[in-house]
Write a structure and sequence with these properties.
Length: 814
């Protein structure tokens, strides 16, 4: 019950505030001095004219006698509290907003008593300011006289209005001025006054900068200063900087044009230029002042019996945000040009794009400059700029410029809540959205795991790899219920994914033993094969088509398919013939520390991962594989070939970057979320700044789901895990033909090739698991199991280190 009240707490509060406000409003509106009250017995016993009866008449008289007409502000406060509660804000008695509202009522009551000291309303029964106003007014006038009391009370009223309703005086005044101006415009446009000459009464708002350099109708041609002119001619250097300013935050043209006139015709610039002044305000990446981040409209709130999480589970980003100073951009531009000139590299910077963590300068070299001459100067530029990280993109794909990315002095944190509020995240076309973060120009980036279709993630300790993995899973939980998404979590470190241990999306418990992870991967391969058999039976090419087909099946068809599957199960041929006839969810397999799995059983892990990467996309199964060190032994050629989607955070060396991305660059990234992304078949990595998520937010989302229900683990998956290396014969309980013995069965199970291998072993002097594996093309676990069985039956001798085991029987004895 406590979970129920906690879940609907804000709704209950909103209903309570709204009901109380409406009750008091009706009571005050229908107040009559003739009704029974503390000051009157009335004329009809318990009969009242008040809409709210006897209770309403007593309450209304008490409130009016105490506060007078300003008591209606209390009603407005209750309605405001109802709205705030619906928005998810907690309203408590210790909230300062209640104090401000009480002080505002006191100020207005005192002012009413000062201006109408002898007046009474409601049949001369109620003072306009109530007894409270009369007392305050008389006390203040004795101390401050009438004028001083009015000044103090009006100042207090204005201040309390700002605090209570969170609206600035500027907004109030400007809205009034705009209203008057609009009325004047309407009068001027009338037929009677159309020939009159009126002065312009419009007030220009200072908070909306006007850009006189850029006009869409008449684009201004700007001169872009070269290296030489920028260093020798201050005027041309200023022109170059102004031109660079115009290119801040620009979106690239489809044809890659570099002309400023074309950019100026398409951009809505935030730059400000005032004639007669030399300063140009640089439009650095600065999002608008924080507003409450809310979920986009028309997002599903319930899926069958599951309630989807609200965005309020995540904390709002802080009010203040990092702003890149104009002087900083100018200084870096000058230093970059000067340093390039010192090494004989002449050209011009045509754009600057500040982002949350780096600023990219687009440098266009002269025709006689070789591109590789610029790339060789990365360390020299980093030294000159005192940059923590500097990366050169030579050239930017599809452009005739070179990108020079330099780290900002102060980084801005990218919050997952901002990305989840993006409409792209909730698009129907994106089934498994991944919030990559923000690009170097500050634009959010959302991609679909379905189109990647699998993901390799690499990064050293502290690079942000685990935070990104957890944030991605959290994003999935905001969009999918257990009906549409199931998870397999492999976490050898036992800490990174521990928060999700009890969510109902899990197919099996989080796997912490690398040996059991091998079994889980092989079960995933079996699941993939079963899904493909099911899709083939219903003529579907992918999981979406399959779900559409089976959802249209009638009850008779469903009963028929259920009967067929039940017959297969009783006949013990589950593996061969059973199929799905109901809608299947997407399955995401998230693996942390993939290197631990490869160290335990490289061949079987690689075989399962490659098989899933090759085929699992169409049946709705996807891999997310994370690792610290992308060594060749971990990221093999087969795995790289079949997993095109790759993300690299900061890695230790250039070799690691080449292994994960097929090119250098990741070793120059910043820590804590800075990453390069390769996806959708593109060979050029794009730089992003990954989202940040607090531990409390992760636990809150996980608890939201775990409170709704416990995970329902897949029976066959659990049977496979229990029959794994740490089990004790559970594989034999899977039934004949279940094939889960091959995933790691018990010691007493029968192997169908036992006799064949035993006959062969009798003709050998010594054998080993590796020799059986190569000779009969078996998996290593199965070959090792046979060796242990042979030892138990006295066929081979005990283990002797890494040497083969001696055969104790001959072929004629077998």
């Amino acid at each position: 019950m406590s979970v129920f009240f906690k879940k609907f707490r804000n709704d209950v509060k909103a209903i309570g505030f709204l009901g109380l406000g409406m009750f008091l409003a009706l009571a005050l509106a229908s107040y009559s001095a003739k009704d029974p009250s503390f000051n009157s017995t009335g004329h009809g016993g318990f009969k009242t004219l008040n809409y709210c009866g006897l209770l309403g008449s007593y309450l209304a008289d008490l409130i009016y006698q105490a506060m007078g007409l300003p008591a209606w502000l209390m009603i407005a406060g209750l309605f405001q509290a109802a709205v705030l509660s619906l928005k998810g804000k907690d309203i408590e008695m210790k909230n300062m907003r209640i104090v401000w509202m009480a002080l505002l009522i006191c100020s207005l009551s005192a002012l009413a008593s000062i201006y109408w000291p002898d007046s009474k309303v409601f049949d001369n029964q109620i003072y306009p300011g109530g007894l409270l106003g009369v007392g305050l007014a008389s006390g203040l006038m004795k101390v401050l006289n009438s004028v001083g009391a009015q000044v103090l009370l009006w100042a207090a009223t204005a201040m309390m209005t700002v605090f209570c309703f969170e609206v600035s005086l500027k907004e109030i005044v400007m809205s009034g001025v705009d209203f008057i101006s609009d009325q004047v415009d309407n009068i001027k446009s009338s037929n009677f006054f159309k020939d009159w000459k009126w002065p312009d009464l419009k007030v220009k708002k200072a908070d909306k900068p006007v850009n006189k350099l850029v006009e869409k109708e008449k684009p201004t041609e700007m001169m872009i200063g070269s290296v030489k002119s920028a260093s020798t001619n201050p005027t041309k250097s200023e022109d170059f900087l102004k031109a660079s300013q115009l290119k801040l935050d620009l979106e690239e043209d489809e044809d890659g044009s570099e002309e400023l006139s074309e950019f100026a015709a398409e951009i809505e610039s935030e730059a400000t230029y005032v004639e007669g002044e030399e300063n140009v305000s640089v439009s650095a990446y600065e999002p608008p002042a924080r507003r409450k981040v809310v979920m986009p409209k028309k997002t599903p709130r319930r899926v069958e019996n599951w309630t989807m999480p609200k965005l309020s589970l995540l904390e709002d980003p802080p009010l203040t945000r990092i702003k890149i100073e104009e002087k900083e951009i100018r200084r870096k531009a000058d230093i970059t040009l000067e340093k390039l000139k010192q090494f004989g590299v002449n050209g011009q910077i045509v754009a600057a794009k500040p982002g949350p963590a780096v600023t990219m300068f687009e440098f266009k070299p002269n025709v006689d400059v070789r591109v590789n001459k610029v790339t060789e100067l990365a360390d020299d530029l980093a030294l000159a700029l005192s940059a923590e990280s500097l990366r050169i993109i030579a050239p930017i794909p599809g452009r005739d410029v070179i990108g020079i990315e330099t780290s900002n002095a102060q980084r801005e944190t990218v919050y997952l809540k901002d990305l989840l509020a993006d409409e792209m995240f909730w698009s129907e076309d994106i089934k498994l959205p991944i919030a990559l973060g923000k690009q170097t120009n500050g634009e959010p980036r959302i991609v679909d795991l379905r189109k990647m279709p699998h993901l390799l993630i690499a990064g050293t300790t502290g690079s942000g790899k685990s935070v990104f993995t957890v944030a991605t899973i959290t994003g999935f939980l905001f969009k999918h219920s257990p009906k549409t998404l199931r998870l397999i979590l492999v976490d050898p470190k036992q800490v990174d994914l521990a928060a999700f241990a009890d969510i109902p999306h899990l197919i099996m418990p989080p796997i912490r033993d690398p040996k059991k992870a091998v079994v889980a991967l092989r079960w995933a391969v079996k699941e993939m094969e079963k899904r493909y058999k099911s899709m083939s039976k219903f003529g579907a090419r992918n999981i979406e088509q399959f779900n559409e087909i089976v959802e249209k099946l009638g009850s008779e068809k469903l009963a028929e398919h259920e009967k067929i599957n039940a017959e297969y199960e009783t006949q013990g041929i589950m593996k061969l013939e059973q199929y799905y006839f109901t809608a299947q969810p997407y399955t995401v397999i998230a693996i942390e520390e993939f290197g631990d799995l490869m160290a335990v059983d490289k061949q079987n892990v690689e075989q399962s991962v490659v098989r899933l990467a090759q085929m699992a996309r169409a049946c709705g199964m996807h891999l997310m594989i994370a690792m610290q060190s992308p060594r060749k032994e971990v990221v093999t050629g087969l795995i790289k070939t079949n997993i095109p989607g790759r993300i690299s955070f900061k890695v230790a060396s250039k070799m690691d970057s080449r292994i994960i991305l097929d090119q250098a660059g990741a070793e120059r990234l910043l820590a804590q979320g800075d990453m390069l992304v390769v996806s959708n078949g593109s060979s050029t990595p794009m730089r992003h700044h990954g989202p940040y998520l607090k531990e409390t937010e992760i636990n809150g989302v996980a608890k939201f789901w775990s409170d709704q229900g416990e995970p329902e683990f897949d029976a066959l998956a659990m049977r496979a895990l229990e029959g794994g290396p740490s089990g004790s014969g559970a594989g034999a309980e899977a039934g004949p033909g279940s094939d889960f013995g091959e995933l790691g069965g018990g010691d007493d199970e029968y192997d169908e090739r036992y006799d064949e291998i035993l006959a062969w072993a009798g003709g050998q002097k010594a054998i080993s698991a590796s020799l059986i594996q190569r000779r009969f093309k078996l998996g290593y676990p199965r070959a090792a199991r046979l060796i242990e069985l042979f030892e138990k039956e006295g066929v081979v001798g005990p283990a002797n280190g890494s040497k083969p085991r001696a055969v104790l029987v001959s072929s004629h004895q077998g």
